[in-house]
Amino acid sequence: MSRVLVVCNDLIFQAKIKGTAEGLGINIRLVGAGGSVQAEQGVERILIDLNAPGTQSNDLIRLRQAFPAPCQIVAFGSHVDVPRLRSAREAGCDLVLPRSSFVEELVALVNPEVPLPA
Predict the structure, then answer these.
(1) Is the torsion defined by CA of 104, 82, 39, 94 positive or negative?
(2) What pLDDT, in 10s, does the model give residues 35-46?
(3) In 3-state terms, what secondary structure has residue 16?
(4) Distance of alpha carbon 115 from its chain centroid, rounded?
């Protein structure tokens, strides 16, 4: 059972997230290109790259419905794609960050025992 689900197609980000999680002893499941995200028990946090396919507003709303609170959804994307970042907030993501902030906070974000930054 994975405590953290990662939706990301970027191989560099996948490796960075996976390496960080492994270093902390945290079990993650990567969902890459075209993979479907199904509701599953035990997921405490979802990290979602807004550049991945299937991350439009309607997709994020369905994701939030499939993984209600207390599961936390953290979305990250390009700082210049303000409409997409705003759309993720409106769709119910608990935290929406530009990629640079996501990388800076990765150790905390990949660990569901650490509260999300305010």
Answers:
(1) positive
(2) 567 767 889 999
(3) helix
(4) 14
